Amino acid sequence: MIEKKYAEDELLSLSGIQHFHFCKRQWALIHIERQWEENLQTTEGRFLHERVDNPFLKESRGDVVLSRAFPLVSYQLGLYGVADVIEYVRSENGISLPGYEGLWKMRPVEYKRGKPKIDERDEVQLCAQAMCLEEMFNVTINSADFYYNEIRRRIQLEITEELRNLVVTLSDEMHNLFKKELTPSAEKSRNCKYCSLVDVCVPKLTKKSVSARKYVRNHLDKACNGEI
């Protein structure tokens, strides 16, 4: 049995790895400093997930069984979360499924509001889900699927060794920052205009690694004193 790398009370939110890849500061504001703001992307994203997350755990569609809102955990990555949908596809090799005959292969499906991104933020989240399932069920998952609501179609993701290594690196960095309670410095980028926390982050104000609360307070103090 492989020794657990992280304990139960050290687990971080799996969905945060997407925020972390997009912007480490955004992740820290949400998960370390507990800041949160709604924008169109987050509102529509929640609505789409609420349609997926329903109390009916399993449904059958021929040789495919769907399990919704499936809990995930990995003690090697130190992550926990919920998969939108797990598809069990009938196969000659796989795992047994209570209430169903035969063997089944698992495939996570992640629902997204928009369209495919130019970076890997979605990919690392889905790969992390697959790695959780591999650890939980002692299986190998070579591919997973996205469903993008804006283009209304599925896109397959190959779970490569390179992508797995990136997930491990990102999760280790997340734990390191969380343990130190460190919020990375603010830097202006093209991602800022799409960020739901841009008004909290205000990256034009500082490049120092300080907490959002502290530098916003300092900025307000300067404003009150007529320094800015």
Automatic annotation (TrEMBL):
Gene3D superfamilies reported in the protein's UniProt record: 3.90.320.10
Q: Which gene encodes it?
A: cas4
Function description? CRISPR (clustered regularly interspaced short palindromic repeat) is an adaptive immune system that provides protection against mobile genetic elements (viruses, transposable elements and conjugative plasmids). CRISPR clusters contain sequences complementary to antecedent mobile elements and target invading nucleic acids. CRISPR clusters are transcribed and processed into CRISPR RNA (crRNA).
Query: Which InterPro entries does the UniProt entry name for this protein?
Result: Cas4_exonuclease, CRISPR-assoc_prot_Cas4, Dna2/Cas4_DUF83, PDDEXK-like_dom_sf
Needed cofactors = Mg(2+); Mn(2+); iron-sulfur cluster; [4Fe-4S] cluster
Q: Is the keyword Nuclease in the record?
A: yes
Question: What is the free-text note on the cofactor?
Answer: Mg(2+) or Mn(2+) required for ssDNA cleavage activity.
Q: Which residues form the DUF83 domain?
A: 106-202
Q: Which organism is it from?
A: Methanosarcina flavescens
Q: Which GO terms describe its molecular function?
A: exonuclease activity; iron-sulfur cluster binding; metal ion binding
GO biological process: any one?
A: defense response to virus
Q: What is its EC number?
A: 3.1.12.1
Its protein name is CRISPR-associated exonuclease Cas4
Q: Which family does it belong to?
A: Belongs to the CRISPR-associated exonuclease Cas4 family.
| Taxonomic superkingdom | Archaea
Name any one Pfam family assigned in the record: Cas_Cas4
Q: List the keywords (alphabetical).
A: Antiviral defense, Exonuclease, Hydrolase, Iron, Iron-sulfur, Manganese, Metal-binding, Nuclease
